[in-house]
Design goal:
Alpha-Beta Plaits, Four Helix Bundle (Hemerythrin (Met), subunit A), five-stranded mixed β-sheet, single chain
């Protein structure tokens, strides 16, 4: 793995952790006593710091250390959680994001003004730190330590293949303290002719001076824990702990004992006594044992001596002859709790590691290439099936049918790879609502539903900015200040709702508020004033409300940083239309507004229904097709474009007239009944050609504004078929029928 790939992985993980940090802080504001949230927040910052340290991104490590130190005070209950502190920590998270972006863009140190801004945050954090401690939090990770630890580290064979540099571990440890001594062990190294240059055979024994706790030191190895064996002995550990360490390691025990003696972790006498006691079942001190041989007792002689057995019976010997414990024994309740909780902790840890191993990161461009190739495969498969039918060879038709079925499965599974839940996008708006409500002095609660609704990754990315405009507009224009809401008999806290769900093969995203709603007269007056509408023109309510999406339209009385310039809502409409979607507005004055966006699930491949008018083929999304019926001219009222469909009035549109097709009219015409947004309409065509896997091709720029057409596709015969824009056609039919009824 190259350094660029490692940096990219760090940036992706850091951004996810920063998102988690935002979510934790917003939860903390509502539930300050939730210890799990505080712990999760601490872990997010600590992990960013640890990753940055492993890769030597010092500005990130230094700043994250300061934030982490204050979070430690919060976790210990020494610093109270307030709204101002939450706002400051959110800003610190933003600054960490800037530092991460700097690494992503340049891989270099940030500009001086960024560091200056970071120092300003440090000073504000120190206001909270010095309130409970005489020592302010330093910008530099402390180097002066006063406690000694011993760390045994054995790297796995594949650690180098996974892109991890073993020396980066020691470099990061130096941010927590001082490595007093280090001994490299190569006992696992095979003969020269068996050495694999990509495998790691290294073992390290480190003496580490630090005043950090064991949890902090242990977390330094979080990123290599699955690829190595780590054993950490705290200062003043018992001799038996060192003996257990020696016995657990694969190297020669005498040599390991010598290393521990040389490093000063143990004296020679302590080592001898510890090994002796472990071997002697009677637990006799080494110096008291009269049966020792070559410095060690095998325990048989001690147990066979009646005097020794009486003196050092297992049930209670001479405690003066036993090593004194250097820790306070746990109570019975504590021991029981530890024993009962250990299996559950191991189970959770194992499940988490299994889940992490079930996911892999794939660059988006590789996924896009795969989808494009699958699209070409769909077209080639359709062509093969057509040629097989034309040849009249039954065996060839059967083989082509099998290929088509397999291609269909590949298509479905490939598209699923691009489907992501919209919840991540919704979660980002929680921070937006928090910041804007503080800026506008409004109390607003955000409610998210349908977060697990999935749609194409490209659609999610391109709809994010339009949703941001709608959210900001609802906060600024829709929801009233608290005093006005109370005067109107409403709750002082406004509610903004984000919802997503599937409906007939499309996704619907709703942005709702319980604010003032849209004022029909005000919108119409501003539209007339700006020349967007003729004063004599008659508009439906729906058309009036959609005027807010016109360029330059605004009803704001004052220009602020959020509104008043008429920029934003027109961008929303253009972005949604570019995704082949539509926007609906549902509002009630004084009760709130709901803006509903309808989008296709994917922009790549859809199940379509193929039909033809003359020599031109058309495709509509299969999910929008309700049924197909034969057009009976006797059921058509004179001068009217609708039929009676089982007691229901169905307006229809002749595609021949819509696209000015001058080919001869077929003797028998059919109506394809389509449905969109609760409205039905009929499309009159000559031939029905059945279901068709449609690979969507965008129109050229010259055809961008072609009404009723949203794209093209290639048929198995090599001909081009037009993909109909069903929403715009349905709306066109409904509007024509409405005007017809009025006259």
């Amino acid at each position: 793995m190259s350094i660029d790939q490692i940096r990219e992985t760090f940036v992706l993980e850091a951004r996810e952790l920063l998102q988690s940090m935002d979510e934790c802080l917003l939860r903390m504001e509502k539930a300050p006593a939730d210890k799990e949230t505080v712990d999760a927040l601490f872990r997010s910052v600590h992990t960013i710091k640890g990753s940055g340290g492993m890769l030597e991104f010092d500005p990130i490590v230094d700043f994250a250390h300061v934030v982490e130190s204050l979070l430690g005070m919060i976790r210990d209950g020494r610093v109270p959680i307030t709204k101002d502190l939450i706002a400051l920590l959110l800003s610190c998270g933003d600054h960490l994001g800037v530092l991460v972006d700097t690494v992503a863009e340049r891989g270099a140190d940030p500009d001086p003004d960024v560091l200056t801004r970071g120092q300003a945050f440090i000073e504000r954090l120190n206001v909270y730190a010095t309130a409970v401690s005489d020592q302010p939090v330093s910008m530099q990770v402390p180097k002066v330590r006063n406690e000694n630890w011993h760390i045994s580290l054995r790297f796995g064979r594949d650690v180098l293949r996974h892109g991890m540099d073993p020396l980066s571990v020691s470099r990061y440890l130096q941010t927590l303290g001082e490595i007093v001594s280090v001994t490299s062990l190569f006992d696992a190294m095979p003969n020269a002719d068996q050495v694999d240059a990509e495998s790691c055979y290294l073992g390290l024994e480190l003496d580490f001076k630090s005043d950090a706790d064991k949890q902090t030191i242990s977390e330094a190895f979080e990123f290599v824990r699955d690829q190595c064996q780590v054993r950490i002995l705290s200062p003043h550990s018992r001799v038996s702990d060192y003996v257990d360490l020696i016995n657990a390691l694969p190297e020669d025990k005498n040599r390991l004992g010598e290393l521990l003696v040389e490093s000063g972790a143990l004296t020679a006498e302590e080592l001898q006594e510890g090994l002796h006691i472990q071997r002697c079942p009677a637990g006799v001190r080494f110096n008291d044992c009269v049966y020792k041989r070559d410095g060690f007792c095998d325990g048989k002689q001690c147990l066979s001596d009646p005097t020794v057995r009486r003196r050092f019976a297992f049930a209670g010997g001479d405690v003066k002859s036993r090593p004194a414990p250097d820790h306070v024994p746990a109570s019975e309740d504590e021991r029981r709790e530890i024993v009962n909780s250990a299996p559950e902790k191991q189970k959770r840890g194992g499940e988490q590691r299994r889940q992490e191993r079930n996911f892999i990161r794939i660059p988006a461009d590789k996924l896009d290439l795969l989808i494009n190739l699958v699209g070409e495969l769909v077209i080639a498969s359709a062509s093969t099936a057509l040629r097989a039918r034309q040849a009249g060879n039954s065996e060839l038709v059967e083989s082509a049918s099998l290929v088509t079925r397999l291609v269909d499965e590949i298509r479905g599974n490939s598209l699923q790879l691009r489907m992501v839940p919209i919840g991540d996008t919704f979660s980002r708006f929680k921070r937006v609502v928090h910041d804007l409500s503080r800026e506008l002095n409004k109390d607003i609660e955000i409610v998210v539903s349908g977060a697990d609704t999935e749609l194409d990754k490209t659609v999610v990315e391109r709809i994010s900015d339009p949703l941001m405009h709608l959210v900001r507009n609802a906060i600024d224009h829709g929801i009233e200040p608290a005093d006005r809401r109370v005067a109107l008999g409403k709750s002082a806290t406004g509610t903004l709702k984000l919802n997503a769900f599937h409906d007939s093969g499309i996704i619907i995203i709703e942005v709702s508020d319980d604010g003032a709603g849209l004022n029909r007269e005000t919108i119409l007056a501003h539209a007339v004033e700006r020349g967007l509408v003729d004063p004599e023109q008659t508009l439906s309510e729906d058309d009036i409300y959609k005027l807010i999406f016109e360029p330059g339209f605004s009803t704001a009385e004052y220009i602020t940083s959020l509104s008043g310039r008429g920029v934003g809502m027109d961008v929303v409409r253009k972005s949604v239309e570019a995704l082949r979607g539509t926007i609906e507005i549902e509002t009630r004055q004084g009760a709130g507004t709901t803006i509903r966006i309808r989008l296709p699930l994917t922009l790549a491949i859809i199940e379509g229904f193929l039909m033809a008018v003359g020599n031109t083929s058309y495709v509509v999304p299969l999910d929008m097709v309700v049924e197909c019926v034969e057009l009976d001219e006797t059921h058509i009222s004179r001068g009217r474009n609708y039929i009676d469909l089982r007691g229901e009035v169905l307006p229809f549109l002749r595609l021949r007239d819509q696209f000015q097709d001058r080919s001869a009219v077929a003797r028998r015409e059919n109506i394809v009944v389509v449905q969109y947004a609760g409205h039905k309409a009929g499309l009159v065509v000559d031939k029905l050609m059945g279901e068709f896997q449609t690979v969507i091709r965008p129109l050229g720029k010259i055809f961008d504004n072609l009404p009723g057409i949203s794209g093209t596709t290639i048929l198995g015969s090599g001909e081009v078929a037009l993909i109909l824009d069903v929403p715009s056609l349905v709306q066109h039919v409904s509007k024509m029928e409405s005007l017809s009824v009025r006259h």
